[in-house]
């Protein structure tokens, strides 16, 4: 293995824990999102969004879109290439498909977040679990429901590879993905500063078949500061 490859692996594996100095009492929004439900909200440039894993190991599947041009969206490829690693944590800048900075992770008490595993869907429920699981509620369904209700021009063609905050998805030496037990816990959070006006689309994952969350989806908390 080359020196460069070793450096990339070190970057990919690094946990960068950073607590926040922001006070929840002065947040302009403090919202508890029920287990298994979607949420779509605007975050303005310069605002900070905190996503809190209230009970531990609850995946928050998240997508970002340019508030003024929804064709510009979060790009997992651009983000990973620019940071030289596959995991997201403190210091990671999230880039768009147009190579523009969308948000920066400014605080993180979990230390590892996934952007490879994708969102659960009818198809993945079938492949990973069983044929009879196909019609169980999924993050893809959540995304589509939120898009339809918001009526802002988003539809299924805008569903792209997402971020799974609080999920631990290692890559094996053979290049396979493993959905391992999480490294999060009650009260762990990730905090993002918006570098442009964005739509934030979250599916608070409803997955009932994955032991990573003890087969028990739980609520998350969402805070925004000016």
TrEMBL record:
* Ranges of residues in domain DUF1989: 34-198
Q: Which domain of life is it from?
A: Bacteria
Quote any Pfam family the record assigns: DUF1989
Q: Which InterPro entries does the annotation name? A: DUF1989, UAAP2
Q: Which NCBIfam families match?
A: urea_degr_1 (TIGR03424)
**Designated name of the protein:** Urea carboxylase
**Taxonomic lineage:** Bacteria, Pseudomonadati, Pseudomonadota, Betaproteobacteria, Neisseriales
């Amino acid at each position: 293995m080359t020196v460069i490859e070793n450096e990339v692996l070190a970057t990919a594996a690094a946990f960068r824990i950073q607590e926040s100095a922001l006070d929840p009492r002065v947040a302009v929004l403090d919202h508890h999102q029920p287990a298994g439900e979607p949420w779509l909200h605007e975050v303005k440039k310069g605002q900070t969004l905190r996503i809190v894993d209230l009970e531990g190991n609850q995946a928050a599947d998240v997508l970002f879109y340019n508030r003024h041009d929804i064709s510009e969206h979060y790009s997992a490829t651009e983000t990973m290439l620019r940071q030289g690693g596959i995991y997201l944590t403190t210091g990671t800048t999230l880039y768009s498909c147009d190579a523009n900075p969308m948000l920066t992770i400014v605080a993180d008490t979990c230390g590892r977040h996934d952007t490879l595993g994708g969102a659960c869907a009818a198809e993945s429920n079938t492949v990973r679990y069983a044929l009879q699981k196909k019609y169980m509620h999924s993050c893809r369904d959540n995304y589509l429901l939120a898009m339809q209700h918001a009526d802002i021009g988003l539809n299924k063609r805008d569903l792209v590879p997402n971020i799974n905050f609080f999920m631990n998805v290692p890559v094996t030496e053979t290049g396979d993905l493993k959905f391992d037990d999480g490294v999060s816990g009650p009260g762990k959070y990730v905090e993002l500063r918006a570098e442009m006006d964005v739509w934030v689309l979250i599916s608070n994952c409803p997955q009932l078949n994955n032991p990573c969350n003890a087969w028990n989806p739980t609520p998350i908390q969402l805070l925004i500061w000016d």
